[in-house]
Amino acid sequence: MTADEPSVLVFDVNETLIDIDALAPVFDGLFGDPQVLREWFGQLVMYSMTVTLSDSYVDFFTLGRSVLRMLGDVHGVAVGSDDLERLGQSMRTMPAHPDVAEGLTTLADRGYRLVTLTNSPPSSGAPTPLENAGLAGHFERQFSVDTFGVFKPTTRLYTGVAAELGVLPTDCMMVAAHIWDTMGAQAAGMSAAFIARPGNAVLPSDSLPRPTLVATDLIELAALLG
């Protein structure tokens, strides 16, 4: 590694590594429209930030079920306990994107330390979403915001991960499919790689930090990092 290269890659999980479009059948079955998934996910992210800014906290999966009930009220659709259970189970068992295992293997072979930082809570005695997706073995550590009691993009999450690993934030690169995640990491002193998954794009503002790197998937990211 050169002095300018990260030694640690910190990966977001939902949508960056695992495919949230696998949740679409839940929303198609409830609302008759799989695109309500994107409405739900956008609201879930917004309310995760809202509870942090208002000094509140509830775990991401619990919040996800609450947002589903809220959307049921908005759309005039009855959301029952079976629907909530189906969403919760589906959130824990989403598959990996097809490029992820190869990309992670290449990056690990090149000497990068690989960890994750996710909004999702740890699973009490049950397999984590990464374990269910067959990805857990690629990572040295799995960090959850649940440990810190705040959601992304709060800067102390990123500095906290660096401190736990015994490195500086400047030694780390955040890898995420969401610009709010890369911006939070950059505000904390990390570099950032944006993974342009379908439905996501770089925010075109000269007044805000751009990602250090932009890649279509993890295989391209490995090539860009050399």
The CATH class of the largest domain turns out to be Alpha Beta
Q: Kindly identify the CATH topology of the largest domain.
A: Rossmann fold
- Low-confidence spans: pLDDT under 50, at least 5 residues? none
Query: CATH homologous superfamily of the largest domain - what is it?
Result: HAD superfamily/HAD-like
What is the chain-wise order of helices and strands?
EHHHHHEHEHEHEEH
The span between the termini is 10 Å
Total domains, how many? 2
The CATH architecture of the largest domain: 3-Layer(aba) Sandwich
The whole-angstrom Rg is: 17 Å
Output the strand order for the largest sheet.
Answer: 3-2-1-4-5-6
Number of strands: 6
Helix/strand-derived category reads alpha/beta
Spatial shape: globular
**Strand percentage, roughly?**
5-15%
Q: Supply the number of helical segments.
A: 9
The biggest beta sheet reads:
6 strands, parallel
Helicity level, as a percent range?
Answer: 40-55%
Whole-number average pLDDT? Answer: 94
Description:
- The protein is α/β, with parallel strands linked by helices and 226 residues long.
- It folds into 2 domains: 8-19 and 94-225, Rossmann fold (3-Layer(aba) Sandwich), CATH 3.40.50; 20-92, DNA polymerase, domain 1, CATH 1.10.150.
- Helix content is 42%, strand content 12%.
- It has helices at residues 24-31, 36-53, 60-75, 81-92, 100-109, 129-132, 155-165, 179-187, 218-225, and strands at residues 8-11, 113-118, 141-144, 172-176, 191-195, 213-215.
- Helix 8 links the parallel strand 4 (172-176) and strand 5.
- Helix 2 packs across helix 3.
- It starts with 7 loop residues before the first strand and ends with a helix.
- The mean pLDDT is 94.
